[in-house]
Design a protein that fits this description.
It contains three helices and three strands, in the order H-E-H-E-H-E.
């Protein structure tokens, strides 16, 4: 009989301790600074929640998220497709 644990960080929206209020302010600030054709880079994007919110808030720009965890990157790609943002996002 093995010990069963909930998946790591399952209860978190972001892969860091970031409040909705702070995330909204950050996304707004970043989106306002992106010109048409710009690309934003999210280093350590995890499953891409912040990247996806930025892509949604800045339709004039592309967003590239990078991370070392391929499983998290695949989740980010799936979420991008589900939100219709996969044409302006990449997760590497």
């Amino acid at each position: 009989m093995g010990l069963e644990l909930a998946p790591l960080h399952e209860h978190m929206v972001f892969l860091s301790p970031l409040s909705e209020e702070r995330a909204n302010r950050l996304v707004s600030w970043l989106a306002d600074g992106l010109d048409a054709g710009a690309t934003a880079l999210d280093v350590g994007c995890g499953w891409g929640e912040l990247s996806l919110r930025l892509a949604a808030a800045a339709p004039q720009a592309d967003v590239v998220g990078v991370d070392l965890d391929e499983q998290s990157l695949e989740v980010a790609r799936q979420r991008a497709r589900a939100r219709g943002l996969d044409q302006r996002t990449q997760f590497l």
